[in-house]
Amino acid sequence: MSAAVKPKPIVELITLGDELLLGLTANGHLTYVGGQLRRYGVTLTRNVTITDDAPAIAAQFKESWGRANIVITTGGLGPTCDDRTREVVARALGQDLVFDPAIERAIKDRFRSFGRPMTANNLKQAYRFRDGEIIPNAHGTAPGLWYAKDERVLIMLPGPPNELQPMFTEEVLPRLIELGWLEDGESYVQLRSAGIGESALETRLQPVFARYGEDLAVAFCAHQGQCDCRLSPASDRLSRAALQAIAEECAGMLGEDFMGFGHDSLAKLCADRLRAADRTLAVAETATGGMLANSFTDLPGATKFFAGGAVCYSNQSKMQLLDVPEEILMQHGAVSAENAVAMAAGAAEKLGADYGLAITGFAGPCGGTHENPVGTIFLALYSPFGVWSKRLSYPGPRQTVKRRAVNAALDWLRRELIKAEDQPALPARAIGFDEY
Amino acid sequence: MSAAVKPKPIVELITLGDELLLGLTANGHLTYVGGQLRRYGVTLTRNVTITDDAPAIAAQFKESWGRANIVITTGGLGPTCDDRTREVVARALGQDLVFDPAIERAIKDRFRSFGRPMTANNLKQAYRFRDGEIIPNAHGTAPGLWYAKDERVLIMLPGPPNELQPMFTEEVLPRLIELGWLEDGESYVQLRSAGIGESALETRLQPVFARYGEDLAVAFCAHQGQCDCRLSPASDRLSRAALQAIAEECAGMLGEDFMGFGHDSLAKLCADRLRAADRTLAVAETATGGMLANSFTDLPGATKFFAGGAVCYSNQSKMQLLDVPEEILMQHGAVSAENAVAMAAGAAEKLGADYGLAITGFAGPCGGTHENPVGTIFLALYSPFGVWSKRLSYPGPRQTVKRRAVNAALDWLRRELIKAEDQPALPARAIGFDEY
Fold first, then answer.
1. What is the pLDDT of residues A157-201, one digit of tens each?
2. What is the distance in angstroms between the Cα of B37 and the nearest Cα belonging to chain A?
């Protein structure tokens, strides 16, 4: 039985590790923990990243523990000499650390199962707070630590994401639900749009927002050719149902620029439409070199609609993998509408897919021609209804050009799949069946 | 002329945006700003992510401004109603905001160059601090703001990464160097290792570390089959040259498990060796679906060694793109050593490359067989000296399995390229020349 739901908790996440501050590792814990709490109606109040230095950890922990209901720390529980979070926080809390033979056994068992010898430094990890519990770690040696006192909870988790993530979903969330800190569902509605800028999006939706004045909170987030708009109640006068109705009115005003509600990526939205229409896709890439294919194969069950793709950097690869005619490459070059069309058609036809989506271009920083400088991208889309190409141009570094090109290609496919729903059905083609 | 170098500055980065706390967007600003400062010997002292709420912004700004030499804020400078950082910080600083017609002109010019009408909400962005300067933004409408007082600097930057990043490198870093806050070069030496766990790595290197006691600071960071070890001086007794000598001794003790010094990725290290040996590579993937190809095509100049690759999800794609014999797929299945070898050889031979690297497996969460459950990966490597395969198994979610499989494949190629340096040279094959 769960306790009654409490007011929204103040939750602070302290992420430790110089590798984060030095820009060596992305702070995936913020994304993960924030995203998990969001699913339960809670917005993380604050995330602080500090160095692995003992005085800094102690000061930050005391500050957060003094004002939050839930404090989560990540990192610094491991076996090496720079792992000192356990000891520093114990001192700041005034809690003794006690050696727990059950933890020692689990660590030894883990090394035994890999057939590796356990080095002595691993025994550091066998200590827990005297009045605390452990959070079992099925994927690593360092257990997490749990300590609750006076309506406050401290949760300490190890740094490796493949250890932290299952611990958070399988152990931490159920305990927080049990204590009544979380409730099911998100506290806002998110509209996703594509192909429209942030200020234009607000201007288009402003007439709707204006009707609700201070009762409606609106937030925008633009990213690489997409723009999200989050709507949430800013007063009790706006019910959940009213919020949903506002979101739907906004979606209607955006037409095809509206991608969907929620968090689905462009690739996921394309995948859903392909599966619903029983259609299959093949891709071909030069400049984006696997990023387009990867955005589909990140989706579980991609096998159901995704036939595969070619990353054809060399001219030989275009001819050998996709039957691009040598004359096209000689006359127009690899970065051309003609080659993009030949790649899209080649991928679809060789792999027996209904749709072929191709990207070629110059991602930079080198390459490019006078006519087609760095940042020039040609897209082509082959479908049961015809084949088209498009020329685009993006400024910025290589990664940005790649990501923008992939998003533009995905958004184009999404729009074509919507249009295809009004077309007479043509026979679908079958692809393989393995589930990678 | 630059000012004399000052003591290490306290630098705080305040990243604004509910989308970060909600886990909707990764905090790329921490990675970018942290990484850029690292190149100039500075470790970011603290990063705080808070909500776009005015009181929270004001409180955090005052706290950071009270203790840091340099405060950097990101986000909330844009045109929409939820962009309030400029106004809130101005009030907290006690600085008036003044309308700057030069900013207005730049915004209007930008819209004109796109042939889009400027919506009125954009004019919010034309205000700056009365005693401050602007930081020009070549890629967006919102300029950054610069304010310096009493040996302290405030730097306010817009949220979109393609705007922030060039502003930071082209405008902010030169001004901070001019003021004497930065010096050239990193303050530590990083050793990267692959194929060895964190506790084993520390244990192997411990005899070296022990000789330097408290003078040497050591930090470890394990990530997906790699482990980095950062060495830095903890006292004045350890010179830069001594640190380098320690790092080189450690590298020697690790043999082939030592990847390199610095920050180069496995893909970059493979690329360097391929280019040095004038060798070329083709790849083939099922489960990792483009991630392997993408790790090479993220490198500028990949054209010089990377012929291309096939993402062959369907069986037809394996046969059509790579000439994998149907009998192999029927007898052994797509997730088998036999198919991995056929894919690696097919990719290299069809694309005329010296090396072929293939990954097949079950990334999950669905799929898998009794014999080869989810997480099973087969790698194959085709080289001028032969062809081999390897079976691996990784626990964890789809993304983790994909990343671990790609890293294992890259590390294998890296080791083979080292061995190949002692082999008699065989003729290299040529690939295309376009620079994507």
1. 999 888 999 999 999 999 999 999 998 788 889 999 999 988 899
2. 8
